[in-house]
Structures are given as structure tokens and as C-alpha cells.
Amino acid sequence: TGAISSLQRQLEIQESELRRIRSEKELLQKQLREREAQLQAVSDKFYSLTEEQRQEEIMVMMKEENHNLQQAVTEQESQLAEQNKLISELQGTISQLQAEVVTTRLHLLKHKQAQKEIQSQAEALQHKELQTRVALEHISSKFERYRNKIIQATFSVEGSQDPQAELTDDEVLEAMQKIINERMEFQQRLKNKGSK
């Protein structure tokens, strides 16, 4: 959005410069018309003189005015050429800035779409995380019940002593493995004696 605002400001500056140059061009054209009017006024003034005086004065004035006009026309043509060149450059810059504005807006639109997709994925992950937490709590609860049953079964065997403190998983497994080994050993002895 900042880039678009900057481009639009540049565009407004260039358009303002273009309007200023066109205004100067119109002013130069107006000055040229005023000079032509002045020449016409001088011509009318000397029209009242005698023919010979009028011709001599007109020739001198015309030479001087023609020289001045030629210089003015040359200067104005040069200025107009420069202004036309500058107008062309400004129009090119304006077109480029307009294209950059369009490109920036497209990038912004793509960024917003990508942001929406990321937001959607984040919400899906949060939902999945919640489901996983619920499942984990359920599994943890079942595991704890199963562990308690193992502890009860392990230490309810005749001759076993109740634990004095909270048991670790390794201690529970060790006690259970001991009972399994004792039972297997007992079964092996029975088998050796021929008992079913």
C-alpha cells in the first residue's frame, strides 16, 4: 500500500509538470500572437506617412522586426521542441508509473491470497493440534489406568511388599519381569515333575 501511494504521488507530480509545460507552451504561443499584433499596429501607424517615408521606415522596421521575430521564432521553436521532448518523456514516465501501480496492486493481491491460505492452514493445524491433544490425554489416561493395574497385579502377589514411594516405569517393569520369571521357573519345575 505504501508503494502504491508513493507511485501515485510520483504520478501526480509528473502530471502536474506536464500541465505546467503545456501552460508555458500556450503562453509562448500567446506572446507570438501579441508580437504579430504589434507588427500590425506598427504597420497601421506608418500607413499615414508619405509613401516614400512610409516605405523607408517600413523597410527599416521590417528588417529589425523580422530579425527580432526570427530570433523569437527560433527560440520558441527550440523551447517547443524541448517541451515536446519533455512531454514525451513525462508521458513515458507516467505510463511506466501506471504499469508499476498495476504490478504493485497485483503483487499485493497475491500477497493477500497467500496470507489467506496461510491463515487457513494455521487454523487447520490448530484444529489438528487440538484433536491430537484430546487423543493424547485419552491415551495418557488409559496408560495411567493400565499402569495402576500392573502395579496392583504386581504387588498383590503373595510375599511381595507394597512400594514405599511412587514407582518409576522401570521399577514397575523390573518387578513385573521378576514375577514373570518366577512363574516361568515354577512352570518349568512343574513340567519337570510331570504335572499338568
From TrEMBL:
PANTHER family, alphabetized: COILED-COIL DOMAIN-CONTAINING PROTEIN 27 (PTHR18853:SF9), FORKHEAD-ASSOCIATED DOMAIN-CONTAINING PROTEIN 1-RELATED (PTHR18853)
Protein name (record): CCD27 protein
Organism: Polioptila caerulea (Blue-grey gnatcatcher)
Transmembrane segments: none
Keyword Secreted: no
Keywords in alphabetical order: Coiled coil
Coiled coil spans: 4-131
